[in-house]
Amino acid sequence: MGKLENIVKAEIIRLASREIRRVFQPLKRDVRMMKLKLSSLSKSVASLDRIAKEKLRESPTQKLQTQLDMGEAKKSRFTPGRIRSLRKKLGLSQKELAMLSGVTLGAIALWEKGKFAPKLEKKAILLALRKMGKRAAKKILMEKKATIAPKGAGGKRVARRKVRPKKK
After folding, report:
1. Domain boundaries in the chain?
2. Global pTM?
3. Which of 165, 134, 154, 161 is nearest to 49 (CA)?
4. 67 C-beta neighbours (distance < 10 Å), count
5. Measuring CA to CA, which residue among 17, 137, 144, 37 is closest to residue 88?
6. What is the CATH number of domain 67-146?
7. Among 8, 100, 102, 139, which residue has the least CB neighbours within 10 Å?
8. What tens digit of pLDDT does each residue of 93-150 get?
9. What is the rounded distance in angstroms from the CA atom of residue 103 to the CA atom of residue 144?
10. How far apart are CA 70 and CA 154, in angstroms?
11. Are 107 and 98 in contact (CB under 8 A)?
12. Got the DSSP string for 21-38?
């Protein structure tokens, strides 16, 4: 009797498994398609987000560039002392001036030392900065700082030591 019982039980399990597979097969297909669609959508959102961040980073510098005249930039002469005095007049640090003009901190330092001269586009930005006041420069700087993500959000990871209790 036990053998017949096991055979019937195995047959019921086999038929139930088959029925479950038949019902869930279309659902599995739908889930797979939804996962693929979600993946492609998240990739496109990420790329659009990256493009938007780049546009936001460029916008304060572009505001400066729209106010300038290239012919005037060619004629202008920026000596190291003039660059330093412009920075002091606007109340900016070298790092802040670098952010506003779209160059590195090292470039500003080399301009002020007289090792290198700014290129034409950067001269035009410096001319635009010369024409504006402290408040306007600080406002553009704040806009630029707001667009740049903080280092902890997606930049380098900070290694932290685990503090373990002392053994007695």
Report:
1. 1-57, 67-146
2. 0.50
3. 154
4. 14
5. 137
6. 1.10.260.40
7. 8
8. 999 999 888 889 999 999 999 998 888 888 888 888 888 888 888 888 888 887 765 5
9. 13
10. 37
11. yes
12. HHHHHHHHHHHHHHHHHH
